[in-house]
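Cross-check.
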Amino acid sequence: MPFQPWELVAGLGIFLYGMMVLEQALRTLGTRAFRHILRDYTNTPVRGVMMGIISTACLQSSSMVGLIVLAFVGAGILTMANALGVIFGASLGTTFTGWIVATIGFKLSLTEYALPLLAVGTLGTVFISTEHRRHSQARLLLGLGLLLMGLDFMKTSMGTLVEQSVPGVFADYPILFYALGGLLFTALVQSSSATMMIVLSAIHAGIMPLTTAAAIMAGANLGTTVTVVMGSLKGSPDKHRVALAHFIFHLLSSLIGLALLYPILQLITDTLTVQDPMYAVVLFHSLFNLFAIILFLPLISPFARWLQNRFADEDGSGCQFITKVPASVSDAASEAIHQEVIRLFYRVIILNLRVLKIRPQELLQEYEGYRVYRDISLKNPSYDDQYADIKHTEQQILHYANRVLQEKASSDEAQIVSGLLHAARDMVFSAKSFKDIRLNIVELRMQSDDEEMIETIRHDTRVIYRHLLNLLEKTDPILIAEKRDQLDTEINLSHDRLHQMITRYSDGDSIGVPLSTLLNVNREMLVSNQMLATALRDLVEAR
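Predicted model, tokenized:
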């Protein structure tokens, strides 16, 4: 039977699609539990490595683990050092797929197992509601079935290639050639597991020697970084740091694999007496990643500090004042916190205005906040990146303030710092309230039959934010008290005005948006504005 290249390509495509379906199902079924475990059991780099190995082996997605780790670093839940442990452990966890396939994938009739999984998985996906947990369980079975079917296609295709192949066809080039091929192929398909499946299929068919397979997997190990690096190009500084750590670690592990390729293979085949080449290549992949982890583990803390000094926050994100003042100089430190919180105030306003599609320069042109907006707009970050930066800044301010308070600051300075921390917390809460109704605002803007409500929200927000910005500039205590009263009145009037509009719609008029959505928007708008007003009071009193 002649070789069918489309059978190989189809098998690869089905396998990759199965991986995607499986990842989506596992994300729905297991991400919440994983988040709790990751938060509670990664308090040291060693435990971070173990969690990275176990979680990636279970979730079958190092990219999903990396995204969750990145979110936790941005929120201040994980330190960079402990996050690095998880990332490094994930590189070893990805080899779990190879072990499973090498153990049972070529010793069973894959079609016999794939068809029942596909039958139950497809029927469950079609007939079970997407809101039900069993829908995700059905998709998990579907993903497994697709994996087995794709692997069977690749195995069959490689088997027919044997009849047309010259023995030793893969043995005529240097190992760097095969490493480069593994790198490029993995970068193209964005999955080292897919590369491993191709390699194992070729070994099983008897057309690829062990040294060639090992070189390909050493290159594939570095090819996995392409997706992470590309995904970080427009990201926050933390994303750049994680991507750099990911690249450096995989570069080192790949270099170890290539430099020690023959000694490691000799260790596997002679010392450990592993004769099956499929087991040997999977063990090779695991060992050079393990060697890299052992080499990096004692250096995680200094490596994390080195990363923190890379990719300075030049885009309006991160902290610009507290990073320049030692916490031991308490009077200067409290002023640095004050300036940082003012800057955070502007950043929250800019983010909230983004939800309502209001151009920040309309309000900030005459204020210091316009410079903050200009710095942010130069980098053009996504909404999620801006929000993550704000959360991360709050954590940085909190950690810095705690160090200031530990330096025996005076009671007055301690009171000022405490007030500033309350202000920062309320500002972030305001941003969160807007974030919670972001999709509701989009729904209101896109589906509403009447633009009066969204325009009212925009108008009232402009008025309230102008009051906030004016109040920040005032220094006269009497005038400040007067402006505070005006601000509170305007916030309450805005809420009442919107509530009256909603009541009118509930009495018969319809604008195409559920009443519950309108009430939710009005409530969160009130909370957001009140939090900003409270934060500004603390900020003004801290002068």
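Residues 5-308 form one domain. The chain has a mean pLDDT of 81. Passed to J.P. for a second look.
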